[in-house]
Amino acid sequence: MADPIYKRVIVKLSGEALSADKGFGIDQGVVERIAADLAATAKMGVELGVVVGGGNIFRGVEVSNRGVPRPVGDTMGMLATVMNCLVLEAAVERAGVEARTLSALTMTTVCETYNRKRAMKNLAKGRVVLLAAGTGNPFFTTDTTAVLRAAELDCQAVLKATNVDGVYTADPKKDPSAKRYERVSHQEALEKDLKVMDGAAFALARENRLPIIVFSMAGKGAVEAVLRGEGRSTLVG
Ligand SMILES: Nc1ncnc2c1ncn2[C@@H]1O[C@H](COP(=O)(O)OP(=O)(O)OP(=O)(O)O)[C@@H](O)[C@H]1O
Ligand SMILES: O=c1ccn([C@@H]2O[C@H](COP(=O)(O)O)[C@@H](O)[C@H]2O)c(=O)[nH]1
After folding, report:
1. Ligand 2, closest atom to CA 71?
2. How far is the CA of 16 from the centre of ligand 1 (A)?
3. Which residues does 64 contact at the CB level (< 8 Å), separation at least 6?
4. What CATH number is given to the structural domain containing 102?
5. 20 falls in which pLDDT band (50, 70, 90)?
6. Inside any domain, residue 2
7. Which structural domain, as residue segments, surrounds residue 114?
8. Where along the chain is UMP bound (predicted)?
9. Residue 230: what are its φ and ψ, rounded to 5°?
10. pLDDT at 235 over 90
11. Is the beta carbon of 74 within 6 A of some atom in ligand 2?
């Protein structure tokens, strides 16, 4: 089997990836499959930070459309990511690898607060580090969080796991004629407004020369396969 192409990465999982076909809530079978994949990847010797979205529970914009102030809606979204991290933490440990949730919002009775040195120590010990509550600030997304944490924690790449197998010329769910890129620069992704990630995330990745690999989480062992250089994906960078 091929050696992993990176030694330390951030994996970005969308919240929806935890919800199977329903788009809402947490499907325990899916969580177990993803946890097994993360544990197998950690066992290959790859240090893994995992940023999880919250779209399967709350998105700040949607909550604020119902009359809640946007910063409050965003806080609800960040709290949703904590729930997703806690369910994954338990599943990764059941799969035989130690895991720690570090939250950007302080909640001392639930999990540890994020701090760069603590995250680095946990990564170096081979623990899967679940990075919860996004950046801790409203008006951001977990895509931007993933790139920010990758830059802070000296990661070599961001692996963006989603429900499409790469970056397309347009949203492939809306435009069946969209073509997949094998490789695209950060600049082009920004200029063409390729919405698979938000512009802030692409801009931060460009400034920090961080590659982003976009791939589908649909199959078994998807993260492990990407790190072995297998399967379909798009390299941004
Ligand atoms: N040019 C494009 N190439 C590929 N995908 C695109 C493009 N434009 C829009 N998309 C859409 O972007 C989505 C990727 O977002 P993703 O599933 O990662 O959700 P998220 O908003 O990051 O997470 P959450 O579900 O937690 O809110 C895909 O569903 C895809 O349909
Ligand atoms: O730094 C952050 C990250 C996230 N949020 C809020 O959480 C939800 C869920 O995150 P997704 O990236 O959409 O999965 C997001 O809609 C924001 O409301 C945040 O405020 N700050």
Report:
1. 20
2. 10
3. 70, 72, 73, 74
4. 3.40.1160.10
5. confident
6. no
7. 8-236
8. 54, 74, 135-142
9. -110, 165
10. yes
11. yes
Nearest Cα residue to atom 17 of ligand 1? 162
Taking each helix axis from N to C end, the angle separating 142-152 and 116-124, rounded to the nearest 10 degrees, works out to 70
Question: Which residues are part of a known binding site for UMP?
Answer: 54, 74, 135-142
List residues forming the annotated binding site for ATP: 12-15, 55, 59, 162-163, 168, 171
State mean pLDDT over 223-235: 96
pLDDT tens-digit series, residues 180-194? 999 999 999 999 999
Q: Is residue 69 part of a domain?
A: yes
Whether 1 has a pLDDT exceeding 80, the answer reads no
pLDDT exceeds 80 at position 210: yes
Task: Classify the C-alpha dihedral 186-192-195-200 as positive or negative.
Answer: positive
Percent of the chain with pLDDT over 70: 100
| Whether the CB of 211 sits within 6 Å of ligand 2 | no
200 C-beta closer than 6 A to ligand 2: no
State how far the Cα of 54 lies from the Cα of 221, in Å rounded to an integer.
Answer: 22
State how many domains the chain has: 1
pTM of the full structure: 0.96
Q: Which atom of ligand 2 is nearest to the CA of 14?
A: 14
Does the beta carbon of 77 sit less than 6 angstroms from any atom of ligand 2?
yes
Confidence bin at 19 (pLDDT 50/70/90): very high
- Calpha distance 71→174 (Å, rounded): 30
Indicate whether 3 belongs to any domain.
Answer: no
Contact 9, 48 (CB under 8 A): yes
